[in-house]
Amino acid sequence: MSKLLKIIGRSAGISAEWILILFLILAFAIRTYPVQTYIAQKTASYLSKELQAEIKIEAVEIIFFNQVLLKNFSIKDRQNKALFDMREVHVTMRQFALFEDPLNIERAKLSDGEVNISRHPLTGEYNFQFLADYFEQTEDPNAQPTIFGIKDIELSNVDFNYDDYRAPEKDFGIDYNHIEMSDVDLSIKNFNMKDDQYEFDIHHLSCSEKSGFELKDLSSAVFIEEGKIKLDALELNTGNSNVMTDYFSLDFHTWDDFDAFEDQVQLNINIDSSIVSLEDIAFFVKDLKGMNEVLTLRAKVRDAISQLEIKDFALGFGNSSFIKGDIELPDFTDTSKQSLTQYFSDIYIDLNDLKSIKMPDSSRSLILDPSLELNKFLSLSNLTINGSEREFDFQFDEFKSDLGELNLPGSMSFSRDSKMIKIAPSEDHLGELLIKDFRLGRFLSEDLLGNISGSVQPIIEISNEGELSFKLERSSISNVGFNGYNISQIEILEGSYANDLLKAGVAINDENVKLDMSCELFLGNKHRYGGVLNVESANLDALNLTSDTSIVSTSIEIELNETKRSVFEGQLVSTNIDYYRGEDTLLIPLTTISILKSPSNEHYTLKSDIIDMEMKGLFDWENLLVDFTDD
Predict the structure, then answer these.
(1) Cα 115 from chain centroid?
(2) Which stretch of DSSP H or E encloses residue 442?
(3) Which residues of 145-177 are buried (b: 16+ CB within 10 A; e: fewer)?
(4) Percent of the chain whose predicted confidence (pLDDT) is above 70
(5) Do residues 230 and 270 make contact, with C-beta atoms less than 8 angstroms apart?
(6) What is the DSSP string of 11-55?
(7) Which residues on adjacent β-strands are paired with residue 91?
(8) Could you count the other beta carbons within 10 Å of the beta carbon of residue 78?
(9) pTM as predicted
(10) Strand ranges, E, within 64-102
């Protein structure tokens, strides 16, 4: 019996030795290149038959049971076009990871290849649908959530192409239906998947798109699940732009909400001080093609696009121009019914910055009116806008330019309909526009005139055809400079412009100038000028016109008509001219001056009770006035 046990024991020992030897031979055989490649090629051949699509693996290396290296791994779709083609796919797992739950992969790296995704021109079916169908599993309601983690994902020199053959190709910009990204380099850390929830950190992403858009670097901590997409500490650099957000979130209920993105997806974005190039933005907004302005931007964006709020908004451009404030954008699908509240705490526009902006290729170059360029800069503080896109009230504290300053302590209204735009005092405010030291002489290129200050109540209308009309309610001017003297106590009795007809009425009750004037000027095809001037008293010394105690009073009526282009005929009638110079007095009763003026000749005929005179030729009236005042 003992002998039998010894035989059995020896046989078992020999069997165990041979099993161990065979296991070691198998282990070493599997690690050999030919065996690994043979297994991989057989697997690829089997899957090719199963999927009815070509799958190739040129070689496989399995290293220490925790690393797999696939070389020249390719998958073709059922149209025999490359779906996935990679020179190397290198996967590293933790030791014994295959026997763990959850499955954790240490590192997955794809190098030197391409991924091509497309949709059928008729059905819209994706070219990888056959893979999804083959590996799809029936959902088990009792199953535990699938947890899958990859510590490190890398793409190196990978091209990604997407084509929806149902849509035509665009000639400029990012074409979301036909994307071609080349030289994609990607580094993702701490990738975790739990059911439909994804978390990962993008340490680096760079690529070039066929449109010309280049992404130099992108990094962020990403969280994705149905209902929320969040990117923390997002930094994006294109070379021209550098965008930084400490928080970027899209909130929604289901993925279907993206079909109505403007209404259903809530934005929550904090943009730090960033640099944005319009050249980059143009790749996404075709209408901006040709622009290259570089902007600085800071903002907090909230709510859906249809009712977007932008707080702590700061936009800068050029050398010194900026806009700061809080903005509520209306629903652009129906702006007439949407209320809006806009607040701009500070606006400063250097007109040189404005002129230097390169306009889109589809637009004409920006040309500023010479009268606007005189301002040099425009500065506005505490501008508030309340109402709708078609009708709103606005007010501001201070408007400054190189020409002067305006204040609007009350509010004015803006309204727009199918016929015109109207700006007028609000119903519950006087709408007085306060003028402070406006450089009237510079604006009109008239050296005799200085600064003007006062208050006006304007009503402005602009028709759809571009015709301008305005009306000034009874207003007062505290002072206006004339030849070095400030004339005060000026009242505007009438002021209007419509259908090329300008009407004005002014009364002055200054201690050295007392007069009233009314006039009508027709500025249409053939100009007509008419007016009445009653000067009760004008101290010419105070007005720096004379220096010998000269005072004049007069009453003048003028009528002048353009009979042909640049040819004027009319007359000036003075019922009296009383001129006092020290103790000397010159009283001229009725005086009539007939006028015929053309570019090549001037003809004046004077008739009065004192003298009759006729003058012909061309006269330099500016120097004549200087000679008169110097006399």
Answers:
(1) 35
(2) helix 440-444
(3) eeeebbbbbbbbebbbbbbbeeeeeeeebbbee
(4) 85
(5) no
(6) HHHHHHHHHHHHHHHHHHHHTSHHHHHHHHHHHHHHHHHHHTS-E
(7) 68, 108
(8) 13
(9) 0.77
(10) 67-76, 82-93
Yes or no: say if 590 and 608 are a contact pair by the CB < 8 Å rule. yes
Residue whose tokens read 């990871």: 97
Residues with Cβ within 8 Å of residue 622, at least 6 apart in sequence = none
Q: Give the model's pLDDT for residue 15.
A: 46
Length of the chain: 631
> Strands 266-277, 228-237: parallel, antiparallel or unpaired by DSSP?
unpaired
Which tokens in the block code for residue 422? 């109207």
User: Which structure tokens are listed for 515?
Assistant: 């007069």
Listed in sequence order, the residues at least 6 apart from 274 whose beta carbon sits closer than 8 Å to its beta carbon are 241, 242, 243, 244, 245, 296, 297, 298
**Six-digit token string for 316:** 């800068």
Phi, psi of 57 (to 5 degrees): -135, 115
Q: Which residues pair with 498 in a beta bridge?
A: 501
pLDDT grade, residue 440 (50/70/90)? Answer: confident
The residue with tokens 């696939």 is 70
Q: What is the pLDDT of residues 54-88, one digit of tens each?
A: 888 888 777 766 788 888 889 988 888 999 999 99
Q: Token pair for residue 413?
A: 């209204």
502, 536 in Cβ contact below 8 A? no
pLDDT tens sequence across 388-410: 878 888 889 999 999 999 998 88
Residue 593 dihedral angles phi and psi, to the nearest 5°:
-120, 115
